[in-house]
Amino acid sequence: MNNLLLYGWNDSLFRQKQSTPFSGLPHGRVTVTHKTCYEVVAEDGLYLCELSGNILYGRMPNEYPCTGDWVIFQPTNEGRGIVMDVLPRSRTLCRKKSGTVSDKQMIAVHVDKAFIVQSLDANFNVRRAERFMIQVLEEDIQPVLILTKADLGFNEQEIADSLKHLVGKAQVFTTSIHAPETIEALRRSIGKGETIVFIGSSGVGKSSLVNALCGKEVLETSFISDSTGKGRHTSTRREMVLLEHSGVLIDTPGVREFGITSGSADVLSSMLDISDLEGTCRFVDCTHTNEPGCAVIGAVANGTLEQGVYESYLKLRREARYFSTSEHERKGQEKTLSKVLKHYAKNYKKDR
């Protein structure tokens, strides 16, 4: 028997289930998603489930189950079932789908904490950590920054300086799988029934960290390449594993690019320590780019705001705005801009 409380089942989810037409059927949580089926953990075991026709043909693909979803299913044969409904989602971690303008790719659902994993080697990138944090905070998920491979040696002061603007927004753990005390400290931070998703680039040690937390090999890993310094294990799917007597851990494939799908101006400003400066700009609608009396630009000039943080703010703000603009609106804006440029070019030639 599985204790679904450890997987995050709670009274709120129970009430949501009772309001559906399928309240008499068993429920479970999606642990792994495949192309056409889903692995679901239920009280009486594991099931491999397909979608009902109503879901398959009556809903959009982004409404299909995702890793972490709670579903109601109809058992069929031994260990098999059909998903009849998906309970309402909360705290969904997404990224911009590669190769698209404004499509989202769901990573995990019902997430309590996001372990943002960065290795203390050449892979370390504070700008990438900022990008992950923006997306996490926007979804009301608690960010936790995990620095791995501390045994390789690193410049502590340099790392501390680069992260000083993030320390107040996220708990930071420095870990090594060869130092059990660092793993134990991280394990104690995971509460009973919490859902933790691991995000980061390939080779930062996410799967090795999950194995260390569980105290056994639950995810496949491989050797470290001498030429790249990265592990050869590359997850191609999101997997959920149970941390004994605690919560659940979701490992995700490493990402080369993590496009944000949100990022309000308030979240960006707060996370990058710009919000206090904004209130002292000369103009209320200051864009912090070239206006006179801009306190943000002034802070960059006098060194109280790092140039790199400022540039990251502008880039993330621009990216968030671009994503939020629908493709139709974007094409309309491009058409209008094209007309303006043509009009300008025509009149410029006349003046000449």
TrEMBL record:
<keyword id="KW-0862">Zinc</keyword>
<dbReference type="GO" id="GO:0005737">
    <property type="term" value="C:cytoplasm"/>
</dbReference>
<dbReference type="GO" id="GO:0003924">
    <property type="term" value="F:GTPase activity"/>
</dbReference>
<dbReference type="GO" id="GO:0019843">
    <property type="term" value="F:rRNA binding"/>
</dbReference>
<keyword id="KW-0342">GTP-binding</keyword>
<dbReference type="GO" id="GO:0042274">
    <property type="term" value="P:ribosomal small subunit biogenesis"/>
</dbReference>
<feature type="binding site">
    <location>
        <position position="294"/>
    </location>
    <ligand>
        <name>Zn(2+)</name>
    </ligand>
</feature>
<keyword id="KW-0479">Metal-binding</keyword>
<feature type="binding site">
    <location>
        <begin position="200"/>
        <end position="208"/>
    </location>
    <ligand>
        <name>GTP</name>
    </ligand>
</feature>
<dbReference type="GO" id="GO:0046872">
    <property type="term" value="F:metal ion binding"/>
</dbReference>
<dbReference type="Pfam" id="PF03193">
    <property type="entry name" value="RsgA_GTPase"/>
</dbReference>
<keyword id="KW-0963">Cytoplasm</keyword>
<dbReference type="InterPro" id="IPR027417">
    <property type="entry name" value="P-loop_NTPase"/>
</dbReference>
<keyword id="KW-0547">Nucleotide-binding</keyword>
<feature type="binding site">
    <location>
        <position position="286"/>
    </location>
    <ligand>
        <name>Zn(2+)</name>
    </ligand>
</feature>
<feature type="binding site">
    <location>
        <position position="288"/>
    </location>
    <ligand>
        <name>Zn(2+)</name>
    </ligand>
</feature>
<protein>
    <recommendedName>
        <fullName>Small ribosomal subunit biogenesis GTPase RsgA</fullName>
        <ecNumber>3.6.1.-</ecNumber>
    </recommendedName>
</protein>
<feature type="domain" description="CP-type G">
    <location>
        <begin position="103"/>
        <end position="258"/>
    </location>
</feature>
<comment type="function">
    <text>One of several proteins that assist in the late maturation steps of the functional core of the 30S ribosomal subunit. Helps release RbfA from mature subunits. May play a role in the assembly of ribosomal proteins into the subunit. Circularly permuted GTPase that catalyzes slow GTP hydrolysis, GTPase activity is stimulated by the 30S ribosomal subunit.</text>
</comment>
<keyword id="KW-0699">rRNA-binding</keyword>
<keyword id="KW-0378">Hydrolase</keyword>
<feature type="domain" description="EngC GTPase">
    <location>
        <begin position="109"/>
        <end position="256"/>
    </location>
</feature>
<dbReference type="InterPro" id="IPR004881">
    <property type="entry name" value="Ribosome_biogen_GTPase_RsgA"/>
</dbReference>
<dbReference type="InterPro" id="IPR012340">
    <property type="entry name" value="NA-bd_OB-fold"/>
</dbReference>
<keyword id="KW-0690">Ribosome biogenesis</keyword>
<dbReference type="InterPro" id="IPR010914">
    <property type="entry name" value="RsgA_GTPase_dom"/>
</dbReference>
<dbReference type="GO" id="GO:0005525">
    <property type="term" value="F:GTP binding"/>
</dbReference>
<keyword id="KW-0694">RNA-binding</keyword>
<feature type="binding site">
    <location>
        <begin position="148"/>
        <end position="151"/>
    </location>
    <ligand>
        <name>GTP</name>
    </ligand>
</feature>
<comment type="subunit">
    <text>Monomer. Associates with 30S ribosomal subunit, binds 16S rRNA.</text>
</comment>
<comment type="similarity">
    <text>Belongs to the TRAFAC class YlqF/YawG GTPase family. RsgA subfamily.</text>
</comment>
<feature type="binding site">
    <location>
        <position position="281"/>
    </location>
    <ligand>
        <name>Zn(2+)</name>
    </ligand>
</feature>
<dbReference type="InterPro" id="IPR030378">
    <property type="entry name" value="G_CP_dom"/>
</dbReference>
